[in-house]
From TrEMBL:
<dbReference type="Pfam" id="PF00725">
    <property type="entry name" value="3HCDH"/>
</dbReference>
<dbReference type="InterPro" id="IPR036291">
    <property type="entry name" value="NAD(P)-bd_dom_sf"/>
</dbReference>
<dbReference type="InterPro" id="IPR013328">
    <property type="entry name" value="6PGD_dom2"/>
</dbReference>
<feature type="compositionally biased region" description="Low complexity">
    <location>
        <begin position="203"/>
        <end position="217"/>
    </location>
</feature>
<comment type="similarity">
    <text>Belongs to the 3-hydroxyacyl-CoA dehydrogenase family.</text>
</comment>
<dbReference type="GO" id="GO:0070403">
    <property type="term" value="F:NAD+ binding"/>
</dbReference>
<feature type="domain" description="3-hydroxyacyl-CoA dehydrogenase NAD binding">
    <location>
        <begin position="7"/>
        <end position="193"/>
    </location>
</feature>
<protein>
    <submittedName>
        <fullName>L-carnitine dehydrogenase</fullName>
    </submittedName>
</protein>
<dbReference type="InterPro" id="IPR006176">
    <property type="entry name" value="3-OHacyl-CoA_DH_NAD-bd"/>
</dbReference>
<feature type="region of interest" description="Disordered">
    <location>
        <begin position="198"/>
        <end position="217"/>
    </location>
</feature>
<dbReference type="GO" id="GO:0006631">
    <property type="term" value="P:fatty acid metabolic process"/>
</dbReference>
<dbReference type="Pfam" id="PF02737">
    <property type="entry name" value="3HCDH_N"/>
</dbReference>
<dbReference type="InterPro" id="IPR006180">
    <property type="entry name" value="3-OHacyl-CoA_DH_CS"/>
</dbReference>
<feature type="domain" description="3-hydroxyacyl-CoA dehydrogenase C-terminal">
    <location>
        <begin position="231"/>
        <end position="289"/>
    </location>
</feature>
<keyword id="KW-0560">Oxidoreductase</keyword>
<dbReference type="GO" id="GO:0050104">
    <property type="term" value="F:L-gulonate 3-dehydrogenase activity"/>
</dbReference>
<dbReference type="InterPro" id="IPR008927">
    <property type="entry name" value="6-PGluconate_DH-like_C_sf"/>
</dbReference>
């Protein structure tokens, strides 16, 4: 049996792809081959991947068992992964997928491009390879519509929540044609990936955790949807909140900064421990969510009837309206307000220091969940 029974072919190495690469590398029985057609892809990998690996605390079998990969320089870290056959950088799709047991794509969200990619991939891929798409909204049935029945049976969505090397959610969305055993495999694969838990270490070259690693509760939480729907569930919920947030700020009800304060001071902490239904189930007292819906029905009905529906235009639509000097641009007045207030509150870009603090906070919240609830 191969030292690395799981050989991942990763197609696309943008920020999400590199975060997923770090996640896959946490499994000591996995090696990854990466391909991205951008000319600066390797430079980006060497620049960004080490920071994603830091939160995983790997160790090299050739180093002191207590030293972690983030004690190495960035280039040494990547070179070590390459020299020990945990990581390979390929120059073509064909080279990437050779002998891969799992092929995962995170390419741009264009249906025609994904259909063309799967057509190219399946011409030379292992006939038993698992086919995963990280799409954030394009269903597997649409991606595989032009493929053979065998390909349709192996293709499914494995959609991570950003950033994948930290966030536990994996939305598994099979098509009606996906074989059940393929769904079971992806569930078990992600459940076995260790999380970014402080104090743990994993060997680059060994198939087993290093002796300094302690047992941990399950980190990744694959959730399988019962049917396909555009955008799946995580993004639909997030976009619903974003829509109302943009409406409220655009209408002058609240500032962008204060709206964020409302979320982080109420919904955010609560939802970290209880989901939507569990929260309102508790809010209903002895009668649970049924009593809550009964008591609050007039208020809920009033609010639901007034939820905003701001219009959002694509770049192409905005260009057309700009050329035509169309009054339709007025439909999107909220955009300028939201962008201006958000940039005034947080700056045009996020500093490295702020980003590091947010990562630390996310890890802290997730560790608290594990401490309070055990295996979720």
């Amino acid at each position: 049996m191969s030292k690395y029974p799981h050989h991942i072919a990763l197609l696309g190495a943008g920020t999400i792809g590199l975060s997923m690469l770090a996640m896959h590398l946490r499994r000591p029985d996995t090696r990854v081959t990466v391909f991205d057609p951008r000319p600066d892809a390797e430079d980006q990998l060497r620049a960004q991947l080490p920071s994603f690996l830091d939160s995983s605390q790997y160790t090299s079998s050739n180093s002191n068992p207590t030293s972690s990969l983030h004690d190495l320089s960035s280039d040494t870290l990547i070179d070590t992964l390459i020299s020990t056959n945990r990581l390979r950088l390929a120059s073509s799709i064909h080279e990437t997928i050779q002998n891969a047991t799992i092929i995962q794509e995170q390419t741009p969200e264009l249906l025609s491009s994904k259909q063309a990619l799967w057509a190219e991939v399946t011409r030379s891929a292992n006939i038993n390879a698992h086919l995963w798409s990280s799409s954030s909204g394009i269903p597997a049935s649409a991606q595989a519509a032009t493929c053979t029945a065998d390909v349709q049976a192996r293709l499914l969505i494995a959609h991570p929540f950003n950033p994948p090397h930290i966030m536990p959610l994996i939305e598994v969305v099979p098509s009606p044609n996906t074989a059940p055993d393929r769904v079971t495999f992806v569930q078990e694969y992600f459940k076995a990936i260790p999380g970014p838990r402080a104090g743990q270490s994993y060997s680059i070259t060994s198939q087993t955790p290093s002796t300094s690693a302690s047992a941990s509760s399950q980190h990744y939480r694959p959730v399988t949807l019962q049917k396909e729907i555009p955008g799946f569930v995580g993004n639909r919920l997030a976009f619903a909140l974003l829509r109302e947030a943009c409406y409220l700020v655009g209408e002058g009800v609240v500032s962008a900064r204060d709206l964020d304060a409302i979320v982080t001071s109420s919904l955010g902490p609560r939802w970290a421990g209880s989901g939507v239904f569990e929260s309102y189930h508790a809010g209903g007292g002895e009668g649970g969510i049924g009593a809550f819906l009964e008591k609050l029905a007039p208020t809920v009905k009033d609010v639901w009837g007034q939820l905003g529906q701001p219009v959002i235009l694509t770049e192409e639509e905005r260009e057309i309206m700009s050329r035509d000097d169309s009054e339709g641009r007025d439909q999107e007045k909220w955009r300028e307000t939201v962008v201006k207030q958000t940039e005034e509150a947080y700056g045009v870009g996020i500093s490295a220091e702020t980003r590091a603090k947010k990562v630390k906070m996310l890890n802290g919240v997730l560790e608290m969940q594990k401490e309070c609830f055990g295996e979720l």
